[in-house]
Amino acid sequence: MKILLFEKNSGQAANIIKELDELNIQADVAADKEEALAMARKMAYDLIILGILLPGIEEREVVNALMENEITSPLICFPQIPGPQDMPDTNAPTQALVPLFNKLQVVLSATEGSRGARITFGPLVLDPISHKVWRNNKEISLTPKEYTLLEFFIRHPNQILTRTMIANHVWNQNFDFFTNVIDVYINYLRKKIDFGYEKKLIHTVRGKGYILKEE
User: Fold this and answer.
1) The domain containing residue 167 runs over which residues?
2) How many CB atoms are closer than 10 A to CB 46?
3) What is the pTM assigned to this prediction?
4) Which of 12, 18, 92, 151 holds its CA 20 to 30 A away from the CA of 128?
């Protein structure tokens, strides 16, 4: 799971990241609205946490901006917590994070449960446990990388996925954007998923990226 944390207070962000590390969850941190939006456009995060110290008005602005940019990652928003002057107990900052992580655990449990269930998109069926894929009840053999790419598409249907988003999710941050490996794997998938069928599912959006949708 990959999380985007929007937290303006660096100390609070460090506390949250430390707790997330203990849960083996990767998280990127954005310190302002523009940075958060830019990162959310590049990466399809499994979850976005809007920082505890965000004022209510700014929080609504961020939520509206995410919606306007058609960013569909689930959100967790938290109200302002007491400042250090209101926390005589040295353990208070950690205690103040308890509601956040209680709610996060609920979201994680629901997410992990859904990840184990078969995913259906039109004639496609994907099994996250066995890594098997079917179209019209016919099993399709995919390589591990092809499967990861298709799973990324099927978990974000009807959403344009840019080359940057695909590279960050399917490959890694050190991906060489001067290669055509993404186009090559998209073609591999098309041959296995769409070849021989009148209705195509994987489409190119010129100048933007690719999208999984039913015509």
Assistant:
1) 119-212
2) 19
3) 0.53
4) 18
